[in-house]
Amino acid sequence: MRFLHTSDWHLGRSFHRVGLLDAQAAFIDHLVGTVREQRIDAVLVAGDIYDRAVPPLAAVELFDDALHRLAALGVPVVMISGNHDSARRLGVGAGLMERAGVHLRTDPGGIGTPVLLPDGHGEVACYGLPYLEPALVRDLLGAGKAGHAAVLGAAMDRVRADLATRPAGTRSVVLAHAFVSGGAASDSERDITVGGVAAVPAGVFDGVDYAALGHLHGCQAITERVRYSGSPLAYSFSEAGHRKSMWLVDLGAGGRLTAERIDCPVPRPLARIRGRLGGLLDDPGLEAAEDAWVEATLTDPVRPPEPMARLGRRFPHLLTLVFEPDRAPDDPRASYAERLGGRTDQQIAEDFIGHVRGGAPDERERALLRDALDTVRAVDTLRETAR
């Protein structure tokens, strides 16, 4: 059976102040064309269909168009909700859509019920695991702890229990939206940390033939059978080095697996340039950046006059300007943001307590801080899904 694995469409998202709806529509054209040309048997979409719980109307229309075009090809689609999606909104009409071959998996209670896809070698059991917010699904899944590893492990126990009832030789695929250990993150993924830990081990997917992952925006293989497709478009300058693509996966008899990358269209390349203003304006080596979306970081000791306008004359697609003067970390002129760069919420809170009190928090206090931060994140998730 031939699958096309994609994820993290983030329909409705912009890149800084540039709207991406046309580029997202071009990706959908590419997706549908690939399904037709490569004779795809099923499309797997591993979450974050939309960029926010209440997407703009134009994004909903694009999603609707994609589903109609895929259904017209007679190709089954299996998709799950991600942490950016409203599971309830995305799942509206799921029962009716199933009749057209569009299988929306947004309810954690249905994790152990697969979509069965037949081919010449038997059936492939395809399980959809929507994004699992630990505080919200711990009791439902009977997880021992309210952490990502615990709830995903409990979900996979349900998958393996159902798979054990299937005929011998039944192949299996799991869609999941999570941060798996060994994956490389970028700046555009929303933090899903719980208890100071976001990642789950790849071994949680042991026992299935392929795990189609979403959440991380870089295409990558954690293992031969556990892969991220990444987002089809870049959503932050940290993705400047990404090659945006989808996985074309062939799952043969006995679970034999091969995978290759199918490149996605690039609306405009990204460039990150850094240096003093004069050097950036004169450097012939930056010619390629003149047609790219540009993030410029100025290192002049003193902010030069009108830097955005001056850079914009050479780089007309300049989107963001960062000022990071060459200074020692302990320089009193360093900004607050510079001093906090790369630090987690937990570290910042602990440092604040130490600064105010004159002593670092003990382990009990650190645990209280972790619980408080996790509660805030869970409340934010509830608010998003309730909108």
Automatic annotation (TrEMBL):
<dbReference type="InterPro" id="IPR026843">
    <property type="entry name" value="SbcD_C"/>
</dbReference>
<keyword id="KW-0540">Nuclease</keyword>
<keyword id="KW-0269">Exonuclease</keyword>
<keyword id="KW-0233">DNA recombination</keyword>
<comment type="subunit">
    <text>Heterodimer of SbcC and SbcD.</text>
</comment>
<dbReference type="Pfam" id="PF00149">
    <property type="entry name" value="Metallophos"/>
</dbReference>
<dbReference type="InterPro" id="IPR050535">
    <property type="entry name" value="DNA_Repair-Maintenance_Comp"/>
</dbReference>
<keyword id="KW-0378">Hydrolase</keyword>
<dbReference type="GO" id="GO:0006310">
    <property type="term" value="P:DNA recombination"/>
</dbReference>
<dbReference type="InterPro" id="IPR029052">
    <property type="entry name" value="Metallo-depent_PP-like"/>
</dbReference>
<comment type="function">
    <text>SbcCD cleaves DNA hairpin structures. These structures can inhibit DNA replication and are intermediates in certain DNA recombination reactions. The complex acts as a 3'-&gt;5' double strand exonuclease that can open hairpins. It also has a 5' single-strand endonuclease activity.</text>
</comment>
<dbReference type="Pfam" id="PF12320">
    <property type="entry name" value="SbcD_C"/>
</dbReference>
<feature type="domain" description="Nuclease SbcCD subunit D C-terminal">
    <location>
        <begin position="267"/>
        <end position="353"/>
    </location>
</feature>
<dbReference type="InterPro" id="IPR004593">
    <property type="entry name" value="SbcD"/>
</dbReference>
<keyword id="KW-0235">DNA replication</keyword>
<protein>
    <recommendedName>
        <fullName>Nuclease SbcCD subunit D</fullName>
    </recommendedName>
</protein>
<feature type="domain" description="Calcineurin-like phosphoesterase">
    <location>
        <begin position="1"/>
        <end position="217"/>
    </location>
</feature>
<dbReference type="GO" id="GO:0004519">
    <property type="term" value="F:endonuclease activity"/>
</dbReference>
<dbReference type="InterPro" id="IPR041796">
    <property type="entry name" value="Mre11_N"/>
</dbReference>
<dbReference type="GO" id="GO:0008408">
    <property type="term" value="F:3'-5' exonuclease activity"/>
</dbReference>
<comment type="similarity">
    <text>Belongs to the SbcD family.</text>
</comment>
<dbReference type="GO" id="GO:0006260">
    <property type="term" value="P:DNA replication"/>
</dbReference>
<keyword id="KW-0255">Endonuclease</keyword>
<dbReference type="InterPro" id="IPR004843">
    <property type="entry name" value="Calcineurin-like_PHP"/>
</dbReference>
